[in-house]
Design a protein that fits this description.
Elements: E1 5-10, E2 28-29, E3 32-33, H1 34-44, E4 50-54, E5 69-72, H2 79-84, H3 87-90, E6 96-101, H4 109-121, E7 126-132, E8 141-145, E9 148-153, E10 167-176, H5 177-184, H6 200-207, E11 212-216, H7 229-249, E12 253-254, E13 260-262, E14 267-268, E15 273-274, E16 278-280, E17 285-286, E18 291-292, E19 296-298, E20 303-304, E21 309-312, E22 314-317, E23 320-321, E24 326-329, E25 332-334, E26 336-338, E27 343-344, E28 349-351, E29 361-363, E30 368-369, E31 374-376, E32 379-381, E33 386-387, E34 392-393, E35 404-406, E36 411-412
Parallel strand pairs: 1-4, 1-6, 4-5, 7-11, 12-15, 13-16, 14-17, 15-18, 16-19, 17-20, 18-21, 19-22, 20-23, 21-24, 22-25, 23-26, 24-27, 26-29, 27-30, 28-31, 29-32, 30-33, 31-34, 33-35
Antiparallel strand pairs: 2-3, 6-10, 7-10, 8-9, 35-36
The structure holds uridine-diphosphate-N-acetylglucosamine and magnesium ion (MG).
Residues 10-13, 25, 53, 73, 76-79, 81-82, 101-103, 139-140, 152, 154, 168-171, 197-199, 225, 227 line the site of uridine-diphosphate-N-acetylglucosamine.
Length: 417
Amino acid sequence: MKKPVAALILAAGQGERMNSDLVKVLHPIAGLPLIAHVTQAVRGAGIKNVGVVIGTQGEAPRSFLSGVKIVLQKKQLGTGHAVMQARSRFGNWQGDLLVLPGDVPCVLAETLRELIKAHQRSSVSASILTADFENPTGYGRILRRGNQVVSIKEELDLKPSERGIREINSGIYVFHTPALFRRLNEIKRNRKKKEYYLTDVIELFARNGELVRAYKIKDSSEILGVNTRKELGEAHQVLTERELKKHSQAGVTILDPAQTSIQKGARIGRDTVIHPFTWIERDVTIGRKCEIGPFAKIRAGSKIGDEVVIGSFVEVVRSRVGNKTFVKHLSYLGDARIGQKVNVGAGTITANFDGKRKNKTVVGDRVLLGCDTVLIAPVTVGKGAQTGAGAVLCARNSVPAGKTVVGVPAKVIKRKG
Ligand code: UD1
Ligand code: MG
C-alpha cells in the first residue's frame, strides 16, 4: 500500500428483510457471524485501523469486535448517514478509506487488496468494486460514461431503460478520505426511502469533475449481499464450496460436496476420505488417510490423528483421537483423550457433563471399549484395558491397565489362570 488505508464497516442496520430479532450482521454462516467474515477479510488485506458502525439495538455486536473502533449510529438513516457518524473518528484521516457493508461475507482479502492497489495507482476520488450479475434485482446499478462512473442508482430509482444494467454496486469502495467527507456534507435524503444514500456521493464527485472508477471482478459470488434469509443460505454455500474446493485440491476426497460442510480454518490431511452428510467445524484438525462419516459431526477443539475411522452417527467435540483408532458407529466423544489403536465399540458414550461442568475422559492406547460402554467423566481407562458390552464406568473409578471390567457399575473381572 502506497498510502495508509483505514477501513469502515457499516453494520448498524437491523436488516428488516431478514424478519429476525437478531441484528442482521450477527447471523452466523459457515461458523461465524457475517460481520466476523468481513472483519477477517479486512484484516487479511493488511488493514489495522478499522472502524465499525453499529446501532443501539443491544450490546451484542460488540462481543465480536475486539480491537476495532466502534462508531454509534443511533438512528438508521441510511448508508450515507452511517458514514457521517464516523466523521469524528476518521474525518481527519489523510489516507484512503475502505468503506464496506457488514453483509458481504464472501469477499476475499486479496480482492480488497487489489481494489486498494488499483485505487492508489490512479488518482481518483473513489474506486468501486463491481461485478456483472445475472439477476441484479435489489442492487444499486452502475451508470457509466466510458471508463468513468457517473452515478449509482438504487433499484427504486431506476428508469425503465436502466433496468437492463447488469453491473452492480458491491457497496465496497475506496475513497480519498477528505473528498468523501467533503461530499457527504452535500447529500440529501432520498425522496422515496427518506434515507441518506452513500451512493449519492458518487454522482456528486462526477458532477464536480472528480474521477470515479469501477473495478470489476469476474466472480460475482464474492460480493453477494445478504439481505434476506435466502441470500444468507446462498452466502453459506459460497463459503462452504470455497473450503471444499481448497481441501480437494490438497488431496482430500469429498464424495458428495453438496452434502458436506467444512468450515474455514479446519485442517485435513492428504488421502482422507469424507463421506456424505459430514459436518466439520473451523478449528478441527484431521490427519491423513482417515475415513470420516457418513453422518459424522466433528466439532470445535477436536484433533483427529492419522488413519482414524470416525464412522456413522458419531459426534466428537473438544477431543483428541490417536492414530489408527476406530470410532465406527453411534458414539459421542466429548472432552475425551483417546489413545492410539483404540476400538471404540458401537454406542459408546462419554458422559462428560455433570450438570455443572464438563469433565475429562482419558482412554489409553489399544483399549477395547465394548458396545454401549458409558464413561462417566472424569474417568481414566488404562492402556490395553477392555470393557464389556454395556459397562458403565463410574466417575473417578479408573480402570487399571490391562484389566477387563464389566457390568453396572463396572468391576474388574478376575480371570482364572
Ligand atoms: C447497499 C447499496 C447498494 C448496493 C448494496 C450491495 C446504498 C444506498 N445501497 O444496498 O447500492 O448494491 O448495498 O450489497 O448504499 N447500514 C447502516 N446504517 C444504516 C443503513 C445501513 O449501518 O442506516 C449498514 C447495514 O447494516 C448493512 C450496510 O450498511 O451492513 C448496507 O445496508 P443495506 O440496507 O444492506 O443496503 P442494501 O439495500 O443492500
Ligand atoms: Mg445489503
